[in-house]
Amino acid sequence: MEMNEDVVIVGAGIAGLATALALKKVGIRSLVLERSQELRTTGAALTLFPNAWRALQVLGVDHKLTSIYPSLQRGYITNIASGATQEVYFTGSERKKFEPRAVHRKNLLETLAEELPPGTIRFSSKLSSIETQTFEGSSIAILHLDDGTQIKAKVLIGCDGVHSVVARWLGLMDPVHSGRSAVRGLAVYPQGHKVKDIHQYINNGVRGGFAPLTDKEIYWFIAHNSKPTSGGMEADPRQIQQDVIENSAKDFPSEYLEVVRHAELSTLSLAPLMFRFPWDLIFGKVFKGNITVAGDAMHPMTPDLGQGGCAALEDAVVLGRHLGNLLLQHGRIAPGEVAGALERYTKERRWRAAGLIMGSYISGWVQQLGSGWLMKFLRDTVFYGFLFSKIVDIDYDCGELPHFPLSVGSQTKID
């Protein structure tokens, strides 16, 4: 089967759905290809900081989530070896809706998907290869799917995750292993819990923590300096839970272990923490003609600053803004103009994303590696005392989408 589409987005994760929604807001229709049979819900939950809430407000869906998830005012970081606890305040925007909140990943995806026109997402569609051809002086991306479908796209946006087919086609280096792995999950308390703040614990190369989602659910994680074990442990959630309690977090306080014991086994995941070298993002090919990437396909990073999903939402708004501006300025989007818009998008995003990658890696290194006096000084005095609030601009404003006069249609085709 052969298809012709204006904009094709590969991947129905946070970046893919948010980008499709941003394009819808500026009057550009898109098709989202998702290899799974339904929306992917792995990852359990994530913390969204003010920069993410600004992007969600631009996309018009922030209120659907802030009404469910309470804001997080502060966090506590405890050094298990010394027993010292530090308090960290999240100093984002004064507007309450922009305060950090932990949200279900599934709920975020469903909220974004509900805003898209019917038929926007095509499930069970795995991209196998990409080629390009020139038609009337403009580049066309030809996508080959595993089921034999061929799609010609005037714009291709890869939002297909850490192991992105589109990023590899552009020539970006594969992400590398950080030397750490993480377990994530949700703890469920049918009778409710009393956790109000974020709690983190560090102990000789291990860092764990938890944050409340709702009054009955808590998101928790633990990261350690070892690769995933072989033998199918990734597919055995009960073994993952047991290993955390008996090994990784055996020296953690009882309140943390109690959260792990309340884990909903179906939400547990064990995965290596991957990242892209920031210089590859700065100097590499992040777009070519009418093809670019967003989200983890562009900037995979470790979760130590909680900015992976936040940055993906920023990408979506910035990309929608640059493509929307073409429509606003010319009343149409000619394929020959797309490359310039994608170049402006990547120029705006590459330094921001590279900084987040570097900041996340440094954050994980400082918090987890070593327990000597030097590491303690770097972690407690320099990082938590000074750099934590400055290493990432959690109040970053990704801008607004262009507003169109009534004469411009709501779903414009690319000429």
Characterization of this structure:
- With 415 residues, this protein is an alpha/beta fold.
- About 1% of the residues have low confidence.
- Strands 1, 2, 7, 8, 9, 10, 16 and 17 form an 8-stranded mixed beta sheet that branches. Strands 5-4-12-13-14-11-15 form a 7-stranded mixed beta sheet.
- The chain starts with a strand and ends in a 28-residue tail after the last helix.
- It is built from 11 helices and 17 strands.
- 34% of the residues lie in helices and 26% in strands.
- The chain has a domain of 240 residues: FAD/NAD(P)-binding domain, CATH 3.50.50.60.
Give the topology.
Blueprint: E1 2-10, H1 14-25, E2 31-33, E3 45-48, H2 50-59, H3 62-66, E4 74-79, E5 85-89, E6 101-104, H4 105-114, E7 121-122, E8 127-135, E9 138-145, E10 150-158, H5 165-170, E11 176-188, E12 198-203, E13 206-214, E14 217-224, H6 237-248, H7 254-261, E15 269-275, H8 278-283, E16 287-288, E17 291-293, H9 308-330, H10 335-368, H11 373-387
Helix pairs in contact: 1-4, 1-9, 2-9, 9-10
